Amino acid sequence: MEKELIHKQSSLSFFLLNKYFWAACIVLGLIVKAYFLPVKTGDYVVYLKPWIDFIKTHGYFSALKYDFSNYTPAYLYFLTLVAKIPIEPVFCIKIFSIAFEFLAAYFLGKIVCLKYHNSLIIFISLAVIPWLPTVMLNSSYLSQCDAIYASFVMGSIFYALKKRPFLSVLFLGIAFAFKMQAVFVLPFFFVFLLRKEIKWYYFFIVPAVYLVSILPAWFNGRSFVELISLYFSQADYYRLLTMNFPNIYIWFSGADFDTFSLAGILFTVLLTLVAGFWLRTPKITFTLETWIKFLFLSFIVVPFVLPGMHERYMYLGDIFGLAYLMFFPKKWYLPFGILLVSTYSYIRCSRFSEVLPMQPAFFLYLLVILLTFYDFVESLKFSRK
Predict the structure, then answer these.
(1) Is residue 29 part of a domain?
(2) d(Cα 178, Cα 74) in Å, to the nearest integer?
(3) Residue span of the structural domain in which 52 resides
(4) Number of helical H runs and strand E runs in the chain
(5) Where are the extended beta strands (E) located within the chain?
(6) pTM: predicted TM-score of the whole model, two decimal places
(7) Considering only CA atoms, which of 264, 269, 238 is closest in space to residue 252?
(8) Contact predicate 102/108, CB 8 Å
């Protein structure tokens, strides 16, 4: 019996440590994604396709002067190019996002390689990340583009941990130019700043990148004030405290939006400030493992306390959960729990919203946060000088 068990373990290790096995997973994932390419969901039919049609009927780049979309100009430039390509737009949109899935997976693998120094890790990341149910649904099925900002966030983390501040903040700026959800990584950079791991003046790169990203739209006639205040108008677009996302606001669905939205934003800022000044003390030694734990905690806590979250806004937590799993395999239930919550939210966002209650996902989400926070604090106790 013991010999048989050893044989099975060695066979399993052979597959898990074989690049060809993971390469086959990548190919199989691409085949599955190709199957979903022709699918047109509501996100495409109601939003993306009309935007592309508007671009076509208003002179392509000349259309950028109009306020016809709630996305930033950075993504609209891509849609303008798509409008010029003589093939079905849904294919271009999905393939573009899928490409960034692999870029996000690549940088995630590079982050984990900082510990293991083994290129096989990158193969594993490239194979696993695109197979995550929420990642698969996001790009391949729903035509969403969260992979774009997420890939640059992963790049910014990698270069920060590599002590390359310019590239780190440049990537952060590009992420922010695509989507406001890049702010989920700001607690990490705030602590990084307070611990003097990065100079304060590097962060001027972020608004500089955003300004550069809006220049083509401005040159084509769109109001500069409108462009620089775009994220403020986005935050007011839906006027719902939560949209199929099981954070604390499920308990305040009938509350006044303006009051609770402002309170939620202020609370998130306060929480970030408290965490930053608590962790800035030199008495706490931050290791690579400590940063990984703090990053995962940030990616799951910020969406929990911020208002206006959608079911897709756990994207960073979903993919960074793989890094957490690779660093701390015995804590596998934490990233798995987050992925379960996120996947449940996606499913509930469909026609199942009336039959699937939000409360079970909330309590699981809260439990994962508490356990992750406890694990993080416990690790700090052992790293005090």
Answers:
(1) no
(2) 6
(3) 39-381
(4) 19, 2
(5) 242-243, 309-310
(6) 0.92
(7) 264
(8) no
Taking CA atoms, 361 is separated from 22, 111, 306, 334, 339, in Å, by 32, 29, 17, 14, 11
In angstroms, what is the C-alpha Rg of the chain? 21
* Contact assessment for residue 83 and residue 56, using Cβ atoms and an 8 Å cutoff: yes
15 belongs to a structural domain: no
Q: In 3-state terms, what secondary structure has residue 240? A: coil
User: What is the number of domains present in the chain?
Assistant: 1
- Is residue 335 one of the residues assigned to a domain? yes
Q: Is residue 2 part of a domain?
A: no
3-state helix, strand, coil in the chain (%, to 5): 75, 0, 20
pLDDT in 10s for each residue of the chain, 385 residues = 444 434 434 444 544 677 888 999 999 999 999 999 999 998 899 999 999 999 999 999 999 999 888 899 999 999 999 999 988 999 999 999 999 999 999 999 999 999 998 889 999 999 999 999 999 999 999 999 999 999 999 999 999 999 999 999 999 999 999 999 999 999 999 999 999 999 999 999 999 999 999 999 999 999 999 999 888 776 666 778 888 899 999 998 778 888 989 999 999 999 999 999 999 988 888 999 999 999 999 999 999 999 989 888 999 999 999 999 999 999 999 999 999 999 999 988 766 666 678 899 999 999 999 999 999 998 886 554 4
Query: One-letter amino acid identity for 327?
Result: F
Cα dihedral 290, 291, 297, 300, rounded to 10, equals: -150
CA 150 to centroid of chain Cα atoms? 4
